[in-house]
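hey can u run this one w/ LMY7XDAE bound, need the structure tokens asap thx
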Amino acid sequence: MSAELIDGKAFAADLRKTVGRHAAAFAQKAGRKAGLAVVLVGADAASEVYVRSKGKATIAANMESFEHRLRADTSEAELIALVEKLNADSAVDGILVQLPLPGDLDEQAVIAAIDPGKDVDGFHVESAGRLMVGREGFVPCTPLGCIMLLKDRHGDLSGMEAVVIGRSNIVGKPMAQLLLDANATVTIAHSRTKDLPGVVRRADIVVAAVGRAEMVKADWLKPGATVIDVGINRLAPAEGETKGRLVGDVDFDGAKEVAGAITPVPGGVGPMTIAVLLRNTLVAAHQHEGLEPPEGL
Ligand SMILES: Nc1nc2c(c(=O)[nH]1)N[C@@H](CN(C=O)c1ccc(C(=O)N[C@@H](CCC(=O)O)C(=O)O)cc1)CN2
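ok here u go:
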């Protein structure tokens, strides 16, 4: 293996520790803990795991966790009524509705009901607009985590060629905007991109966020490129396995021989999502108390 492993798990653990220290100081100053409300609708197995991890991480970081579990047949009106109750609750600084939502619940309508000042997921159109025009606001946790890893490795990203594969509202588009803000030259590639391998081959930085297991191959990469793999895909179990392996959107075994640095799956980008969520919640809490968020958080 020639590539350096980007250890998102260790970076995230450090970030959670830093947030925890600042959260304890916040509680002293404000006379209350910062609070995060997480809403889970239905019983999707992966979402259950993420929601449990978020609750545990919130408490470990000296913040208050409020979990709301609703039945899968909850109506949109009931869900929005809960969001509005949380908007009005002064103990709640951040509100997160775990995605995906079951059935035909309209994610956009539910996200639109969240007070933008409590939108710690950064999914509200107001947060997206603020990111687009360079105004302060909440940035989605996964892309913010990716840019933290990239800046930690490269410092200055000015002039670097970055290719983001995937154009989702929650990863691809905000990721491209963050790279642009860091003065990279950015291309967003997607399923209709002609000659995807050729486009990826120009990149100093590749962010793969397509949700297709091991789609990005080693021979698509420029030697020495930094590869950030956002995908989390579970393969079908091989013979003798009860559970399939987790893999990213990049063929890791091949890519690690060509890339300069690469995030593994698991243990790369995934853990950053929850660490950044805690960071965003603490920033929201400072804003709600009229306090300046800690420097460098
Ligand atoms: N409202 C939201 N919903 C969803 C988000 C989100 O940011 N906000 N992101 C994902 C799920 N997610 C957090 O909610 C999340 C995904 C993955 C990880 C993680 O640490 N993954 C591990 C592997 C875990 C495993 O073994 O299965 C890793 O990559 O190392 C954390 C959070 C969709 N929904």
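Residues 50, 96-99, 121, 141-142, 232, 246, 265-267, 270-271, 273-274 surround LMY7XDAE (CB under 6 Å). anyway lmk if its weird
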